[in-house]
Amino acid sequence: MRELRHTILVQPKLEFSALQPGARASEAIRQAARDLGLTPEKGVRVRLTGSVPLADEEFGTLADGALRNALLTVLAVALLLWLGLRSGNSTKTWTANSNSMTITGGSALPVHWPNPSGRCGKPSPRPSIWKRGSPNASWVSGPSVPHCVSSSATVRPPPFEGEVLAYEPESLVEFQWGTDVIRLELVPTDAGSVLTLLDTIDDLGKAARDGAGWHICLEALRQHLAGQDSIGTVPRRWQEVHAGYVDRFGPEAATMGPTGRDVGPFDWNRAHDRGKLRAMPLDGEYEPSPAEWVRTQVQEYESSGGTSGTTLRDMPVIILTTKGARSGKIRSPR
Amino acid sequence: MVADPHVELQDGPLKGDMMARQVTGAEKAEWWERAVAAYPDYADYQKKTDRQIPVFVVEPPAILTGARA
Predict the structure, then answer these.
(1) Nearest by CB to B10, which of A266, A274, A319?
(2) Which positions in chain B have a beta carbon within 8 angstroms of at least one beta carbon in chain A?
(3) Given CB atoms, is A17 within the 8 Å cutoff of chain B?
(4) What is the structure's pLDDT at A19?
(5) Residue of B nearest to A276 (CA)
């Protein structure tokens, strides 16, 4: 049977404040297709392709990975607490003084899977934490062990080394976590204990990312221990918290990882190389500048593909194209 | 640009979709100083008018900065 294909070009209105700017537009298109009866049951398949749905899918994957990684890290912290307390069912009060919060309760699940082969594959069905010859997880100092971090299919970090550096039952655990050294200390107080989390990093560029990540982990841990296990808003909350860390640490501490709005230098050329800057070209009726000299220079600039007319008074010129709020016309002043 | 901050920026042969953001306060003062340093006529423009000349910072959409890592 001959297969007929029709292509419909759509210019969606994107929401740049959302992680997936074209998600609502894509859903509207799918809904319209359903309303028109363009369904597989009637022998019609509607597929979306192009830069917008592909980019949405990519960032959707990132979001999935972020949520999963955040969950795994929360569980890792929960396990550390449990190992320190050895009382998974008891209720105790903790204060994470790095974020001025109170955590109540205690329960845990393991999260990392040591892989003696050094290769990351499917996690063991019986995960353990730095297990060294004992069926029960235990903290002991010793040689490093390769570890694998579960992640999304498209963003899978390489295995890294883990090594317990210090351990005092119920009060201290310090371990190498890739290139970081993470130290967790518990100090008893009248109200419970104070948990101090110290992450020593060797790359300033990830300080805001990881600081925000730990912040969210501790918040989520508090929710988890309070029986409120919803961390479905992690990506949004992470963005909110991340901005504060960027403000406090400076843009040089935010050169790695997903970023919010106020970030460090953006690599314009690299973004172009990756085809990332053409998300939503402006469209509409073009209205040349009323000033002839501006009109002439813009025309020279654009007609040459940006190789001529690129300076004014020996200074570089860029072309900024905007859309008139009332007229809807496209304008290109310099 | 206030009503529709989506702009297209061409720098030589490269074009890209960007977002314009009006800046105020200390942030505006910082950018205004840079603008006048690059193009001193801006200072004269401001002297000739009572209105405050707005300053916009053009940035890549946040989603694209997230893609650079």
Answers:
(1) A319
(2) 1-4, 6-20, 38-39, 58-69
(3) yes
(4) 66
(5) B64
Least confident of A145-159, A206-220, B30-44: A145-159
CATH code at B6-65 = 2.30.110.10
This complex has an ipTM of: 0.84
Q: Cβ of B13 and A278 within 8 Å? A: no
DSSP H or E run through A67:
helix A51-85
Residue A301: DSSP 8-state: H
Contact A302 B13 (CB under 8 A): no
Residue A314 sits at the chain B interface (C-beta within 8 Å): no
Judged by a CB distance cut-off of 8 A, whether residue A150 touches chain B is no
Residue with the larger pLDDT of the pair B44 and A244: B44
Dist CA A263 CA A120 (whole Å): 33
**Whether residues A34 and A67 fall in one domain:** no
CB B40 within 8 A of CB A332: no
- Give the CA distances from residue A292 to residues A270, A297, A305, A328, B39, in Å, rounded to whole numbers and listed in that order: 35, 9, 20, 22, 21
Would you state the structure tokens that stand for residue A210, as one six-digit string? 């990881």
Judge: B10–A321 Cβ closer than 8 Å, yes or no.
Answer: yes
- What's the distance, Cα to Cα, between the start and end of chain B in Å? 28
Q: CB distance B17–A319 less than 8 Å?
A: no
When divided into structural domains, chain A yields a total of: 3
- How confident is the model at residue A268, as a pLDDT? 63
* Among A134, A262, A311, CA closest to B38: A311
* Residue A269 to residue B14, Cβ atoms within 8 A: yes
Locate the domains of chain B by residue range: 6-65
Say yes or no: A302 and A153 in one domain. Answer: no
> Would you place residue A83 in the very low, low, confident or very high pLDDT band (cuts 50, 70, 90)?
low
The pLDDT score that the predictor gives to residue A66 is 58
Q: For chain A, give the mean pLDDT.
A: 65
> In this predicted model, what pLDDT tens digit does every residue of A34-65 receive, in sequence order?
888 888 888 888 888 777 777 776 666 555 55
Nearest residue on chain A to B67, alpha-carbon basis: A258
